[in-house]
Amino acid sequence: VNEPTDVTGDDAVSAYLDGELAAAEVAAFETRLGVDGRARAELAELAEVRSLVRNLGPVDPPGGFVDHLLSAGAADVEAEVATATATPAAVVPLERERARRRSRTRFAALAAGAAAAVAFVVAVAVPGQHTVRPALATEVRVHQAGSAASGDPVSGLAPLATPLRFGR
Amino acid sequence: MTSDRVPTWEEIARDHGQFLFTVAYRLTGNVDDARDLVQEALLRVRRGLATYEPGSLEGWLARIVTNVFLDDVRRRKRRPVQALPEEPDLVLPASDAADTAADAAGLSTEIQAAIAALPEEFRVPVVLCDVADRSYEDIARTLGVPIGTVRSRIHRGRKLLRAELVARGVVTAEGVA
To answer: Which of A65, A68, A129, B157 is least surrounded by CB atoms within 10 angstroms?
Structure first.
């Protein structure tokens, strides 16, 4: 619900131009215009500004921008933005450089994502023996050897990366 | 645009990409930021389509692109950046006032630069009103402020814009230069 407008206030001028006054308010404001030269002058000035902005017209996106969005698809665009916003930047010297770097990062991320997807498909689709590096068995042996050397028979049984300590 | 059918993301990108880009460009004042803004806005559009209730599609889109812009403004305030003085490809070299007035493209560039010079609190409601053609009520809902605040900011924003246009020689104290 629109609030009533004080037609004696300055901002009634813009509300009048924008058709945001109720019928009774329009009548009251026009009565004011008849006697208030300053309001008439301001109405003319702001009508001109309003007209200039409204007549600017639409702005065409850069060539191929919408096509890029459509061909990349929403999922790819989302991945681009997620990657770009996750990229740390300790110092941002210039505004335009930031925008350009982000744009480059997005396309690099898209390419990297595509390469990773291909690698994943190849890895899953092509049967073969897979090696996990570093080998878990090797890690366990190294850990046990270290424990034996330190003379601590208990920590040799402990899970990797779980420090054990007895007493205070 | 009012329709009972919920459009697809692709339809919105194709049919309303120019609208989104226009609002984004008027808000940001440069192509790079406008492009980022539209890209992020379209992500939110895609996520929001499931809950979108058919109505004023452009009102909904304007709200989304505005929210993305304001989020970005808040983010930049937390991590200030050094802004460039001007966007060279958008600003014409200095010329005679008569040439500038006769050059429609130059006039648009000057008006856009004057819009970009407005503080965000005035620029956003002016752009939503005069570029996106939203009502005061819709703008108030988008910005989460009372209608009286919208009315006041649009009015003050236009007065500041006029002062900026006078300073740039686009209009004189008496009218268009």
So the answer is: A129
Taking only the tens place, the pLDDT of each residue in A56-100 is: 989 999 888 888 888 776 566 666 666 666 655 444 444 554 555
Q: Pick from A106, A101, A96: which is nearest to A65 by CA?
A: A106
pTM as predicted: 0.67
> B151 in contact with A at a CB cutoff of 8 Å?
yes
- Which amino acid belongs to residue A1? V
Measured between beta carbons, which residues in chain B are less than 8 angstroms from residue A53?
111, 115, 126, 130-131, 161
CB A61 within 8 A of CB B38: yes
pLDDT for the residue numbered B7: 86
pLDDT tens, position by position, B152-175: 999 999 999 999 999 999 998 775
Residue type, B99: D
Q: List, as own/partner pairs, every contact residues A93-101 make where C-beta atoms lie below 8 angstroms and the sequence separation is at least 24, other chains included.
A: A93/B81, A93/B82, A94/B81, A94/B82, A94/B83, A94/B84, A95/B33, A95/B81, A95/B82, A95/B83, A95/B84, A96/B30, A96/B32, A96/B84, A96/B87, A98/B81, A99/B30, A99/B32, A99/B33, A99/B36, A100/B32
Check CB contact of B170 with chain A, cutoff 8 Å. Answer: yes
Residues of B in contact with A102 (CB under 8 A): 36
- Nearest CB to A13: which of B17, B33, B155? B155
Amino acid at A28: A
CA A138/CA A60 separation, integer angstroms: 61
Question: In B, which residues are within 8 Å of A57 by CB distance?
Answer: 108
